[in-house]
Amino acid sequence: xxxxxxxxxxxxxxxxxxxxxxxxxxxxxxxxxxxxxxxxxxxxxxxxxxxxxxxxxxxxxxxxxxxxxxxxxxxxxxxxxxxxxxxxxxxxxxxxxxxxxxxxxxxxxxxxxxxxxxxxxxxxxxxxxxxxxxxxxxxxxxxxxxxxxxxxxxxxxxxxxxxxxxxxxxxxxxxxxxxxxxxxxxxxxxxxxxxxxxxxxxxxxxxxxxxxxxxxxxxxxxxxxxxxxxxxxxxxxxxxxxxxxxxxxxxxxxxxxxxxxxxxxxxxxxxxxxxxxxxxxxxxxxxxxxxxxxxxxxxxxxxxxxxxxxxxxxxxxxxxxxxxxxxxxxxxxxxxxxxxxxxxxxxxxxxxxxxxxxxxxxxxxxxxxxxxxxxxxxxxxxxxxxxxxxxxxxxxxxxxxxxxxxxxxxxxxxxxxxxxxxxxxxxxxxxxxxxxxxxxxxxxxxxxxxxxxxxxxxxxxxxxxxxxxxxxxxxxxxxxxxxxxxxxxxxxxxxxxxxxxxxxxxxxxxxxxxxxxxxxxxxxxxxxxxxxxxxxxxxxxxxxxxxxxxxxxxxxxxxxxxxxxxxxxxxxxxxxxxxxxxxxxxxxxxxxxxxxxxxxxxxxxxxxxxxxxxxxxxxxxxxxxxxxxxxxxxxxxxxxxxxxxxxxxxxxxxxxxxxxxxxxxxxxxxxxxxxxxxxxxxxxxxxxxxxxxxxxxxxxxxxxxxxxxxxxxxxxxxxxxxxxxxxxxxxxxxxxxxxxxxxxxxxxxxxxxxxxxxxxxxxxxxxxxxxxxxxxxxxxxxxxxxxxxxxxxxxxxxxxxxxxxxxxxxxxxxxxxxxxxxxxxxxxxxxxxxxxxxxxxxxxxxxxxxxxxxxxxxxxxxxxxxxxxxxxxxxxxxxxxxxxxxxxxxxxxxxxxxxxxxxxxxxxxxxxxxxxxx
Length: 918
Known about the structure:
Layout: E1 2-3, H1 9-18, E2 50-60, H2 67-74, E3 81-84, H3 88-98, E4 103-114, E5 117-126, E6 129-136, H4 140-150, H5 160-176, E7 183-190, E8 197-205, E9 212-218, H6 225-231, E10 240-244, E11 249-253, H7 259-264, H8 270-274, H9 279-285, H10 293-309, E12 316-324, E13 330-337, E14 343-350, H11 357-364, H12 374-381, H13 392-397, E15 405-414, E16 417-425, E17 431-438, H14 445-449, H15 462-474, E18 484-490, E19 495-501, E20 509-517, E21 521-533, E22 553-561, E23 566-575, E24 584-595, H16 602-608, E25 618-631, E26 639-653, E27 666-680, E28 691-700, H17 718-721, E29 728-739, E30 752-763, E31 777-779, E32 793-795, E33 825-838, E34 844-857, E35 869-880, E36 884-893, E37 907-913
Parallel strand pairs: 2-5, 6-8, 9-13, 14-16, 17-19, 31-32
Antiparallel strand pairs: 1-4, 2-3, 4-5, 7-8, 10-11, 12-13, 15-16, 18-19, 20-21, 21-22, 22-23, 23-24, 24-25, 25-26, 26-27, 27-28, 28-29, 29-30, 30-33, 33-34, 34-35, 35-36, 36-37
Helix pairs in contact: 4-5
Signal peptide: 1-24
Subcellular location: Membrane
Protein name: Outer membrane protein assembly factor
């Protein structure tokens, strides 16, 4: 056999024509394919090339790759006509195979020539496969992250590109963490147990963190360093503290002080000065100031943008230099050119027909003489679509002008004054043609479609698009961060299609708990809530997973018991669109509870009735409710009016919890009608960032005393007075959510301020009746430890246990009265600062800091809205789809602080499950 030219002539010809005689870069580690033994004597002449037909092609040297596929890649096949020697078909075949980057050597051999036919063999030497890899010198978690980012997998072909990719990933990984001097060394290890395979070891030395000692600005005559540094959010210099012994004061100083400075004040070196500082300052001394190249580039742009926002339109960074200040740290010098300060001059409008010049000028909100700010101008014009609205583009798009365009053009510069002409092209009003929904794998499409405000055939409106996004998010079935809205305009016919995309999230909830108490024994709770239930598919077995779902209904069942002492059953069902055409929310619920404090020992009898020796008693509650809510159109369609009919029956036997003499036996009936006017405009349910909630309710029992006006019911026995409960009750809640900064980036994270105010009042119709202990307000605690079965409105207050006196000077632990009837008036004020740590729908986590004040009052004569119990603290919230909302709060009740006591004695840890406490 010969290579395509005898004595190496073909190899030379291929090298000349194709620039290659394919040889492996890893030739020392991979043995080449050996040519067939005893090749025939073939002596074609380079001067006399001839055409041959390929009779057969074989592939040698492959161990992992499919030979038929390799033949296909070569472009050669049996029956093809080739010219030998000198044909370019062979050159192209070698180039094609080599370009796959899978081989260390590619050679084509001629094994036989006979009767105008030629036999070929493609000799391949595969590059080795990676059978293992490991990183040394770093943590396993870091190694796993790097391997994932680099796409390392066993069995991958080992190429120089693979190694360089891993090295690049390592450098970027650690550079983002502030280790800009990381080094990587690669080592190959042969595997004697497997043919043509090897292991790779990456030795990583991440080195010390590269921190920024000083950021120095030069040329900034009008804006101080401190304001420019404040704009560099991702590039900060190390914080240092300067100690002045004479005054014993510590000053924060962003610039390093030389050692001579410390010696001047009697300290041998800075570290000795730190010994005299408070531990808090020692901790803060080495605050993070890592250097990140990508963030640094962004921050330079932010510095220029800040100059532009202050009127310095021509500002730029002339030069920036980074240089070592120590073995691993950096200094940064930035030379800026500010230019002169500009102001807005005349602003004129051109092309507007829908709105007059005066209206557009008012919307723009920029007057002649204002400091020039291009970013503000473009924001007010609406160059970037924003859900905040209020810009000119938004006003046009709310009326269907989807093809609207607006361009600010500088038409003149007079000294430091810039004149603008705002050119508008309104275009036609777009009509919605098709609305498409994708991504709803579980929820039926009609559940989403009925929430949309973008209806085919109607004019396009950006406000309706944003409102539709809110309504989809508030369903609670989808990841609110992944809801997509994509208008697809068609200029030819003036229409627009709208594509909505959603991502389903788990939202069914399971409550399962068990415990053991010394006197009580085993306790347990089992509860399930299906938030996307489908009643109409209840008899279709194929829809059960584990129950039929997809129609947006809510089904909840909960059972709790500890045997003889306590048991409770709850059932509720909600249909949000009764009839399917309008947002009429229909709900039914049933609940029953039983409590026997004497079930286990006289210990409980002594707690609940000090003067009684009986061990036979109980308190039973049976209740049901039916409600219907209707969405209103006025004042706006955020309002809902809800009607509900409620009934509760209370049965007492030898049970006197309320401290009312004689009220330990009997049956009480509470039938009432409740009207609720609510308005909700929050952007989403779990972590609202904007919007508000308002609720005003009025609740009335039948005025039984009116039917017998001559009777004084207060003279009846106390147990008889409460046979038919009579009252009127009013509640008002208000909540506002305000983002304190505009969300930046894809994570949408921002601080949010929540402010809330609440008020409640319950009273009699006249003085001929006695107000029962049921339906009143109970303040303090967290809502879980309170005895909710007594039919109380539980108004929690963090930092306080349940209290029954309105005197803040009485500590609930020591000054609690024996009267547990509850309050008839209350008010509460809350302020929270929230920040989300994770907005992942499978585990939403946010922290909060709060201050709140509340109090309850026995009657309206005692009411004083400024006599409040005050508290403050911090908390965390975790939303897990399976369990709902979990919360932990640590609060300090300031009015619980006793003389000589500390904050520890006034602190209280509270827990919440499944709901935000009132």
